[in-house]
Amino acid sequence: MAVSVYDLTGRTAFVTGAAGGIGRASAVLLARAGATVHCADRDPQGLHETATLIKGEGGTAHTHHLDVTDRVRLQQAVASCERLDVMAAVAGIMHSSPVLETRDEDLDRVLAVNFKGVLYACQEAARLMLAGNSGGSIITMASGAVDTGGPGLLCYGAAKAAVVQLTKTLANEVGRRGIRVNTVAPGWIRTPMTDRHEGEAQARTEAMMTRMSPLGRVGEPEDVAQAVLYLASDASSFMTGQILRPNGGVAMPW
User: Which of 6, 120, 156, 230 does the annotation list as catalytic?
Assistant: First the structure.
């Protein structure tokens, strides 16, 4: 029987933000494809639940309780992997404020998690992959915010735009060593991050995003996890420095 290009048996993946949302969905799907998955997050209970889901389906999961802004702790966690084939840097936070009301501390906090945390993950993954000399796939998480300039999303959008630049730059620097670096820019996905409004406000927001989508729905974490699996697998072996946009058609940049 032919081996699927999505088969990750024998490979090791590291997923940040794995305690819930897109990170959990990605960790679970990578494990279903056969990968041993290292799950990292600052939420110990969520980490335990993700690992339990993976193990309950017969997969292999390891947990690392950490904050991605802690470079040393993240370095130690990645170094604990015997080998690394896939890094999915998913961890992120949301902040919303008009440009004229954005404070230094707001920008610093979002950049620390959404950009520096991704940078640290990329650096440690690339170092381990280069040392192993067997290639690999690094996947970052951008956002549809990089295409829209949505009101109130200066901090979030700027950090995600920086992630896109990081992705393209690193792709050029490590490509000749067989390491691919790509990013995923989701649209509105139903996660704890987007579930930040209350009651009717949340329902109105989802209804608006549903109307904006040519597909007539908002996304689920599994929709983004499928993009992560594609980039992690041999199915995307000729892709690097690219942006995948699972956004329901809300944004259609050239």
Answer: 156
